[in-house]
Amino acid sequence: MKKYILSIDQGTTSSRTVLYDDKFKIKSIEQKEFKQFFPKDGWVEHDAEEIWNDIKQLILQTIKKNKLKTSQIISIGIANQRETTVLWNKKTGKPIYKAIVWQDRRTADYCNKLKLNKKDKIIQKITGLVIDPYFSATKIQWILKNTSKKKKGQIKNILFGTIDTWLLWKLTEGKSHFTDITNASRTMIYDSKKEQWSEELLKLFNINKSLLPQVKENAFNFGKTKLFGGEIKIGGMAGDQQAATIGQACFKAGQSKSTYGTGCFLLMNIGNKFKISNNQLLTTVAFKINGKKMFCYEGSIFVAGSAIQWLRDNMLFFKDSKETDKLYSQANKNEKVVFVPALTGLGAPHWQPNTRGAIFGLTRNTSQADIIKATLDSLSFQTLDLIESMQKDSKIKITEIRVDGGMINNNNFLQSLSDITNVKIIKPQNIETTSLGAAYLAGLNAGLIKNVNEIKKFWKKNKETKPKTNKKIIQKEIFIWKKTIKNLIALNQQDSKSN
User: Fold this and answer.
1) How remote is the C-alpha of 82 from its chain's centroid?
2) 313: Cβ contacts below 8 Å, ≥ 6 apart
3) How deeply is 161 buried, as exposed, middle or buried, from its count of CB atoms within 10 A (0-12, 13-18, 19+)?
4) How confident is the model at residue 75 (pLDDT cuts 50, 70, 90)?
5) How far is the C-alpha of 322 from the C-alpha of 130, rounded, in Å?
6) Integer Cα distance of 383 and 268 in angstroms
7) What does the pLDDT average to over 155-182?
8) Rounded alpha-carbon distances, angstroms, from residue 70 to 55, 168, 204, 333, 490
């Protein structure tokens, strides 16, 4: 009988299961979108139970569609949306509040107080992260503060996890309460150098250590699930961006990948030394495999594919996101529209949670195609901002970026990205790099592959995009972009003060 690896790719807007054969070729993909909740301005929530039920259904669909016996699945790998926070009652197995999503901005004021109290340097020194509502710590605190009935001993029954931990706990029917080192490094309470939960930060955020999962390497025996007819091992876990870094085989210092999904995340491998960024980037764990740990600099753009989703669902500009490639070509080159899609604030390198999106340069002649082009170009400009910060920190010139995510099927976007960043953009043969990274980790734990050198051999280039637009034109556009961002931030800060 043929053997397979099953990857769970749990994202921000949809959940997927991807079945790989023992040569890491895709056999099948099952996918389901789930509901997004926006109860207040800047608040974003998910129903953790819905996510779990979808995952369970997708696994069953995969097994049924491919006529599999559970014994044919060697191992399961999990990749997940990071920082999204779930707290649940371990006796009932039910969340005590909806999952607060990484995009959520409700703790922005509290984060500002921490900055005013000079806690930013302490937090960055321990975790490599900047203070921002993005990370799990302030979300945990908010849920505890807003749901606790103050009953003595109630905390004993509550567990915390990012989505990886929540799914693992459900898959193993409460037997495994683990996370992996990449997800732990995004919580803002984990010491990435000492590899332990930070007592100092737990005290700062008033979080009890009993809530927290044990932290493990990325390829590890995380437990077994018996929910699908027989035992299946769970052998790999990583946050989605680190999983994509593994899937893109970025194992050498200086190698970079950028994922264009709901958000955009540019990661550069910086080697095995923990180095603090001086240019508003994050230092985070890239992976730990077979005892070897690597770090990376990361720049996060909060709104990428979700801006396209907004144009589709809220503005009704098109019915299918695939149409944006053709519509980009129809834009009027004489229109100078600039769109800053800060729909949930600005991420790196600005870190302005209260800044909101804006479109500039509209005329009577502006069309939907012009706004679509401005949206896609904005992601290229924001990527350039990240590249510039990364190069200052690392002293390494980025000459090529390996890209993945749903948006890279748009050829006009890839050309825009290459032109504006002046970097070679490389698309791999398998663009499902997040699920692939999780599959590699599960394969490592199962003994299907021995080390990262074997992963390197699997990576294959599909397409290369090089800069071809006039540099003078691009430089002028970059100048306008930077000026627009600066003015928008100043305007939002002025509004905040007046309110």
Assistant:
1) 6
2) none
3) buried
4) very high
5) 35
6) 13
7) 95
8) 16, 17, 45, 56, 57
pLDDT surpassing 90 at residue 213:
yes
Q: ∠ CA(345), CA(33), CA(246), 5° rounding?
A: 70
Q: Which helix (H) or strand (E) holds 424?
A: strand 424-428
* Distance from C-alpha of 336 to C-alpha of 141, rounded to nearest angstrom: 44
pLDDT of res. 262: 84
Rounded to the nearest 10 degrees, what angle do helices 305-313 and 368-394 cross at?
160
Neighbours of 306 (CB within 10 A): 21
71, 99, 226, 229 from 49: Cα distances, Å: 27, 9, 19, 22
* CATH architecture of the domain with residue range 4-247: 2-Layer Sandwich (3.30)
The residues, ordered by sequence, that sit 6+ positions from 236 with a Cβ below 8 Å of its Cβ are 75, 76, 77, 78, 218, 219, 220, 222, 438, 439, 440, 441, 442, 443, 444, 445
CA 379 to chain centre: 15
Mean pLDDT of 10-16: 93
Q: What residues does each domain of the chain span?
A: 4-247
pLDDT of residue 154: 60
pTM of the model: 0.89
Please, what is the average pLDDT of the chain?
93
CA atoms within 13 A on the CB side of 61: 16
Give the pLDDT band (50/70/90) at residue 497. Answer: low
**Coil, strand, or helix at residue 404?**
strand
The H or E element spanning position 385 is helix 368-394
Grade residue 496 by pLDDT with cuts at 50, 70 and 90: low
> Is a pLDDT exceeding 70 seen at residue 343?
yes
pLDDT in tens, 452-491: 889 999 999 999 999 997 888 899 999 999 999 999 998 8
DSSP annotation of 377 reads: H
pLDDT at 153 over 60: no
Secondary structure of residue 150 in the 3-state scheme = coil
Report the distance separating Cα 160 and Cα 210, nearest Å: 9
| CA 335 to mean position of chain CA atoms | 33
Query: CA 375 to CA 340: how far, in whole Å?
Result: 8
Per-residue tokens: 439: 């599959």
Nearest C-alpha neighbor of 488 from the set 279, 381, 281, 342? 342
pLDDT of 444: 95
Chain position carrying tokens 């908010």: 142
Cβ-contact 436, 404 below 8 angstroms: no
Order the strands of the 424-428 sheet from edge to edge: 282-289, 292-301, 264-271, 256-260, 400-404, 424-428, 461-465
Gyration radius (Cα) of the chain, Å: 22
Q: pLDDT tens across 274-307, in order?
A: 999 999 999 999 999 999 999 999 998 989 999 9
What stretch of H or E contains 390? helix 368-394
DSSP-assigned letter for residue 276:
-
Task: Give the span between the Cα atoms of 286 and 437, in whole angstroms.
Answer: 12
